[in-house]
């Protein structure tokens, strides 16, 4: 009898544990919010939730996104386990479409006041960019880190260039002047630039993709479930980059596992974002000077020069019991004033129009002139195209990038065509 | 009391049965079901019939990954056996510091695979790596250990051999110590050379150990993952993408769970086939 009772108790206990594991984080009258897990954003999330909780009946409980290989994987695990927070503020734009198709996100355009708010905050092109293929908006553009070219001012001056290289020819000529075999062993060990040679799909956000956006004036990769990048711009970008590797202006070796190659003068330039400022200020040698300029463009380029903005957006998961209240909180969290606070704490740019001329932010940019360059560039940034298979698209491009640009086994024309054909096949499956 | 006697055996085996059902039977059955579906984890499963199997036979990258795995095995297994047996023979002699050497050779086995991989990534570095610096010092050219598509997989096989050889040395040592001394004494009386003793006595006598090492290194080789994942990401030009890495990418990178399960099932059948063949031929003929 006692044995039967023990068995029954164990079974009930196991069932309760299993059911609780699948529970939602949301408690009555409390919204759960996951922020990014870098220290600056944790500080900001702490600040904003305390501010909100001081005068709101519905409280917001915040925690950084749990540690994992990537925040994307953690969010996916939470979605599968139905343990998503109500609000998440570090959503990669490329993941939104797949989640939207699965019905996991709240269509924000159905919430009171959202449409007016979003058009007040963003240009119509940004609104178009974040609108999903079903016509709804599932994400709020919050922060961006535009990719630009950092350069060593001393090296550029010493190369006796008239100006910082802005076009492909200028960049290539400067590269030829700078590359050198320092130790005389017959191998180049000083390069003008460096980009990760690994085939990992997201590495293309820091070389091919911003260069493609710059060359094409913010062109798309995918439109209506079809590859639209088999064009002169993509071919020009591949040709430009291929040339850099063929002539050893860029290192083919991974240089990431040693002293910072930019700060130690091993390379003169790098494609990077505003996070480089804090890093460089902390580790630069005495007297080291650097600055930023837009991505290199084809010689005949006209018009604005776009780049990849590396946007991270805010979403409300459909497990949220109070989406309207969550939206009210978010509206406050990304108000003009709180965006300034966010900028001051994290040195990441809020994605809002006329950031560089808004008087509210003038003092910040006066105190941080290098950030002002990124703010000016912020007018011409793009995120990613709305597609549920974006990772695969970038992976396919990356495979061809490796074959053509890094190893030179294909012509740029053939590589771009092969990538576009493979992407088209993706949509047929 | 009688009831207890009937229930007790079931209760005693129930933890294993529970574990087996939850972590073996259910995943196997579920993955077989998955092979007929398209599923990205977050959306409902969609029945697709045999399309995953059709795709498998047209997938050039999967074929490439199988060839890469085969290349790895062809280099890794003989190298592993030769080096391990050679070192085991030496360590089986009465050497000074024998205990130290045995421990030293075993050390890489207990070090994390990721740590070893990162260490070798530095050694293989093109400009700053130890091997290339050594080659340049003695007047030879640099080698693209991990950047040359023809050399990257052999480089990984070399590293994997270094990492695992300690385990196989221990196995061979055990095998060598089971060979009775009388055989060698009799051979000495007959005037047999060292090589004759090795080939006529040692090798046949440690046949079961060799078979076990071949099986273990084959299964280990088939599960090649950490090394290409950390060192090369499968590149350059897919030259180091192993079958397991490709299956992982399809499943946990693209979330093609159905296709990944199909690849996994197919690959499991290949491993089964190879092991059966090895059991049939290697065990008898070595």
Describe the structure.
The complex is a heterodimer of chains A (429) and B (286). Chain A has 429 residues and is an alpha/beta fold. Chain A has 2 domains: 25-145 and 309-381, D-Maltodextrin-Binding Protein, domain 2 (3-Layer(aba) Sandwich); 148-308 and 389-428, Periplasmic binding protein-like II (D-Maltodextrin-Binding Protein, domain 2, 3-Layer(aba) Sandwich). Chain A is 44% helix and 12% strand. Chain A is built from 17 helices and 13 strands. Chain A has helices at residues 2-21, 39-53, 71-80, 93-101, 114-121, 124-130, 153-158, 168-178, 208-216, 232-246, 275-283, 323-333, 336-346, 362-367, 369-377, 390-406, 412-428, and strands at residues 30-35, 59-64, 87-92, 140-144, 148-152, 222-223, 226-227, 269-272, 290-293, 307-308, 312-316, 349-350, 381-382. In chain A, the strands form 4 sheets. Chain A has a 6-stranded mixed beta sheet. A 3-stranded antiparallel beta sheet of chain A has the order 8-5-9. The longest helix of chain A has 20 residues, at 2-21. The model of chain A is unreliable at 15-25 (pLDDT under 50). In chain B, strands 1-2 form a two-stranded antiparallel sheet. Chain B is 75% helix and 1% strand. Chain B has one domain: MetI-like (MetI-like fold). In chain B, β1 (37-38) and β2 form a beta hairpin. Chain B has 13 helices and 2 strands; from the N terminus they run αββαααααααααααα. The mean pLDDT of chain B is 89. The A-B interface holds A 3, 7, 73, 76, 79-80, 98-99, 101-102, 104, 185, 187, 189, 197-200, 251-254, 257-258, 391-392, 395, 399, 402-403, 406-407, 409, 429 and B 4, 7, 11, 40-43, 55, 121-122, 125-128, 136, 142, 144, 147, 149, 232-238, 252-255.
